[in-house]
Amino acid sequence: MFIEKSCEIHLARRPEGLPDRDCFKLVNQPVAELKEGEVLVKNLWMSVDPYMRGRMIDRKSYVPPFSINAPLEGGAIGEVVESRNPSLPEGTKVSSMMGWREFFISEGQDLQPLPKTSVDDQAYLGILGMPGMTAWAGLMQIAELKKGDRVFVSAASGAVGSTVCQIAKLKGCYVAGSVGTDEKARYLQEVLKVDAVVNYKTDSDLQSAIAKACPEGIDVYFENVGGKHLEAVLNIMNDHGRIAVCGMIDQYNATSPIPGPANLSQLIVKKLKMQGFIVSDHWEHYPDFVQQMSQWIQEGKVSWKETVFEGIEQAPDAFLGLFSGVNTGKMLVKLS
Ligand SMILES: NC(=O)c1ccc[n+]([C@@H]2O[C@H](COP(=O)([O-])OP(=O)(O)OC[C@H]3O[C@@H](n4cnc5c(N)ncnc54)[C@H](OP(=O)(O)O)[C@@H]3O)[C@@H](O)[C@H]2O)c1
Description:
Radius of gyration: 21 Å
CATH class of the largest domain: Alpha Beta
Distance between the termini: 16 Å
Low-confidence stretches: none
Largest sheet: 7 strands, mixed
Bound molecules: NADP nicotinamide-adenine-dinucleotide phosphate
Number of helices: 9
Strand content: 25-35%
CATH superfamily of the largest domain: Medium-chain alcohol dehydrogenases, catalytic domain
Number of domains: 2
Order of helices and strands: EEEHEEEEHEHEHEHEHEHEHEHE
């Protein structure tokens, strides 16, 4: 297959606050001829994730920052369309971290062939991929979820949050969550069978709304948002509760330091455990997670939603939409 050009998205400048479209640049790159041992991968799907905002900042973190005038990176599902590597024949579907571009050349070490299942390929960017695994690791490894726990999750209709809700229900827990629209609230209650939902944008007193949704208090808080959510939940936590700190999307675009919750002493009074985590540190549990999640999928016990933008040029808008709640379930870009 002869491919002359591949479109990719570069970081044009580092954002201050919420990024705008000028932070991104669409670049046409020539595609080189394959050398022995290489494959040409055509991306079919790419993921946009909130953590990418952190990589736009030039600072030391658990992953290096994105470089200016270089392609962004992220999860992607592609297909080998030309191969000079016998272990990756044409037609092989692969997952990689080479998103934000239409095509790329690889020697194969950075590619994971997808298992042959009846599940749609892009599920490996969502429920069966990093976000699903994050929900699992946060609940099982960090929060040490037990049957009967009263669980509260923020950003509950997103890729991670909607999986948290379902795993916790399957484990026999009471589950409540917060979302930003009534439509998302209905999705949680009617489809995911969550016990109670708070709309944090319309419920004027967040703490009272969460307390009402969790009449017996909270044993496990799955934290995706931070800020006012954390402060409100700390006051409602039960003794010996566990807080798995997964994300704090409320502050990813902050332009000045965020004050901490005024009531952190609740950690002492209620003998709480609060622990942050990064999913990649827990990847040794991925096979257990996939086995369990695949079984639940086969049995029809879990479901998921996707919000899909089409075309590489839409990728920045898909990414920005994460911060205004455009998505229900996994935010994806379909590239082909
Ligand atoms: N620790 C890890 O290894 C790890 C891995 C993956 C993800 N994460 C974190 O997990 C969280 C969820 O990630 P995801 O990929 O599943 O994203 P997501 O929930 O699918 O998308 C983001 C959602 O967050 C909500 N949101 C945006 N800004 C908000 C704000 N200021 N206050 C409250 N809610 C807000 C929006 O829904 P509403 O309409 O409900 O506002 C939006 O749809 C993020 O904090 C992310 O950084 C952590």
